[in-house]
């Protein structure tokens, strides 16, 4: 098992994955957004229970949690260490930061919103960076990445988020039917 010691190791590992060009990764993207919303529902049920003390909200929370766990298994097939929990928290953080960004946008704070949206997307890209290897393999995605040289080494001084964002953009096309 290769141990990922640095962000460059992570980017190299993600870049080396081969993605089947016929697989509909947009379904995985849609599912990940659905999972984000289930995590948010869990949070709202937690707060509602604490405000009302009604046990029905705990029962609902448990049902939503079971559904979220089941659906996460569709994306996170195999994991090591705490990748499962890291993945859940990356999705949750991405969703929350995106929501704060939309609130800033509504207030007319476009620059703040843009910064928050970028951070949200970076977290989302990191989620896919950790989990992209779980999809069927075929032609190499690294051939399409401009930041990887012919030996599979990272070029330039871009951040891990920038590099993973490029991987996600090239691998997931939500508009492909």
Q: Termini, distance in Å?
A: 36 Å
In DSSP terms, counting alpha (H) and pi (I) runs of 4 or more, how many helices? Answer: 6
Biggest sheet details? none
H/E series = HHHHHH
Structural class: mainly alpha
Number of domains in the coordinates? 1
Q: Per the principal axes of the C-alpha atoms, what is the gross shape?
A: flat
Characterize the quaternary organization of these chains: single chain
- Give the helix proportion (percent range): 55-70%
Q: Number of DSSP strands?
A: 0
Question: What integer is the average pLDDT?
Answer: 77
- Uncertain spans, ≥5 residues at pLDDT below 50? 17-23, 134-153
Alpha carbon gyration radius: 18 Å
Strand content: under 5%
């Amino acid at each position: 098992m290769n141990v990922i010691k640095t962000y460059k190791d992570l980017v190299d590992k993600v870049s080396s994955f081969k993605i089947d060009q016929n697989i509909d990764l947009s379904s995985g993207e849609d599912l990940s957004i659905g999972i984000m919303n289930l995590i948010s529902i869990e949070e709202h049920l937690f707060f509602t229970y604490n405000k009302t003390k009604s046990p029905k909200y705990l029962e609902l929370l448990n049902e939503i949690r079971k559904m979220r766990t089941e659906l996460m298994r569709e994306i996170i097939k195999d994991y090591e260490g705490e990748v499962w929990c890291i993945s859940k928290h990356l999705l949750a953080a991405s969703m929350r930061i995106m929501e704060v960004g939309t609130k800033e946008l509504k207030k007319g704070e476009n620059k703040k919103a843009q910064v928050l949206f970028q951070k949200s997307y970076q977290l989302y890209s990191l989620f896919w960076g950790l989990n992209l290897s779980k999809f069927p393999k075929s032609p190499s995605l690294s051939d399409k990445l401009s930041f990887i040289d012919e030996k599979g080494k990272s070029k330039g001084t871009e951040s891990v988020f920038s590099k993973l964002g490029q991987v996600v953009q090239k691998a997931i096309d939500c508009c492909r039917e």
